[in-house]
Amino acid sequence: MGRIELLVVERGRRFKLFVVLFVVLLVGSIVAYAGMGYMSIPISSVGDIVFKTIVGRSDVARHFYGKQWYIVMDVRLPRILSSAVVGASLSMCGVIFQGILLNPLADPYTLGISAGASFGAAVSIVFPFGVFAFFSTQLVAFLFAILTLLFVMRMATFRGVISPTSLILSGVIVTAFFSAGLSFTKYIAGEEVGSIIFWLMGSFSSMDWVSLLMLTVFAAVSGLIFYQYAEDINVLSFGDRVAVSLGVNPTRLRTVLLVVASVLTAATVSVCGIIGFVGIIVPHLFRFLVGADNRRLLVISALGGAIFLSTADNVSRVWLPVEIPIGVLTALIGGPFFAFVFRKRMKGGHLWKR
Amino acid sequence: MEKVIEAIELEYFIEGNKIIDRISIDVSKGRFYAVVGPNGSGKTTLLDILSGSIKPQRGRVKLMDRDIRDMTRRDIARKVAVLPQDTSVLFDFCVFDVLVMGRHPYRDAFGTLDIEDLRLVDSVIDELGLGELLNRPITQISGGERQRCFLGRVIVQDTPIVFLDEATSNLDPYYTHEILGRIKRMTARKGVTVVSVFHDLSLASMYGDYVFFMKNGRIEYKGEVREVMVPEIVEDVFSVKVKVILDEGYPHPVIIPYGR
Q1: ipTM of this predicted structure
Q2: In-domain check, residue A76
Q3: Looking at the 3D structure of chain A, how many domains does it have?
Q4: Higher local confidence (pLDDT), B89 or B156
């Protein structure tokens, strides 16, 4: 008996250690990043500002710290926290899409959600009249993303069954269509083309507390739903027949998770544009660390994704002479790192003991 | 004898093509049933219908005296376990993760494992000698070891009925007999009922007690192994010439197809 219990306890303990480590790292980096920038603010002041504001003494803090309070609370924190929430969301969605599409190459954009959103955004930028006059670019992008999802799901359903292959193919078709639409819109856009490109590249520079709050609610609710189904996704990795024999309904599971993950992805896209690479490398990276179990993978990827994207955004904001679009930077930082881990792993070497 | 599966007048078609054509079968407790037939004769579809994975357009299935339409997927998963052919898995779950998955149909909303679950898993690890492999990713062990691990998952699922779908098709003789032998012993010791699709007719007659011959979505012949594993029937169903050897020193018919 002892052996099994030991194994379970030991794995649980190591996982908890990672979680604690990552939480400390995340909180630490958020506070540290809030102090960095054009005006440098000591970490102790940042801590004091945040603490006083949370406990309802913001007027005291505002009076005492003056301009520093506004910089931390109104400019930097919304931006840093948003990048963390988006990083966590995209990473979780990556785990989910890879799990339900049974494809390690899948990411939150595989099904064409980003292509749909981009097209929607471009159209609303170039034709700011008619229906588009009433909706913001964000909202149009979000609606296009959802419409794309519904269309892809409809196209991929045969005899009431949704299979991973048909989903991926439908995604490819829709992506090709919307990419062409986007190119055409850019072609006829004239001088608006700059705004389109800027929007598509993604940025956290104009984040406020309202968007952040909305995004956080989306992310938290989705995260709970994902976690609830994580065990079912594990079972689904062994194919639909095995999943059915263990009491899981694959098509229902796919439908629920596709909708939730896509809505979350659409929300991130509409708030801060398209940020590639996070959703595909973070799940892979942490699969190396905690194994394939989606329950653990979700938690650790959410934390790791938050650290990764907030760090990337900080690099762009603080350390580089000019701000590089965040979507570009994630690939620039993440690419080489992932290549290193991947090579090491494939050679059979252990980065760390499993 | 106690009936564990009763299928009545099953019909299943896809866009007008009949895949299953009015099949009725009874399956009794503790026996090993072999299902054989040419490719595309509907064997796998029949298993999928009997395990509630697809719904037939006509007819009904009763599992342990309950209509399968009144059972949830979890209910069914506590009655029937399925071991398909060894397939590649993309994500490297370790052997222990896979064994524990056998308890999936019994887990509560929080997905916790209780001590009974762990005890069962532990006994299966000993029974199958999987102790050394527990932490190994299933993508990095041999096909035979992997199928033994999947068999472990099926035993952990602890169901009265087990379906095999060409479970040993790509295994070497050692693992083939190891896996089928263990399943066969489960029928004798625990009264588990087995329905297994085979391509190898000699294996079917060695492990099966009773054989269903399928062709074009119908059950053409059925009976005890020694009654139906005869050249006339095999030649009719598979359209090949066969030699059936009955040796006094070996208790099962050996079937050798030798030409068209």
Answers
A1: 0.90
A2: no
A3: 1
A4: B156
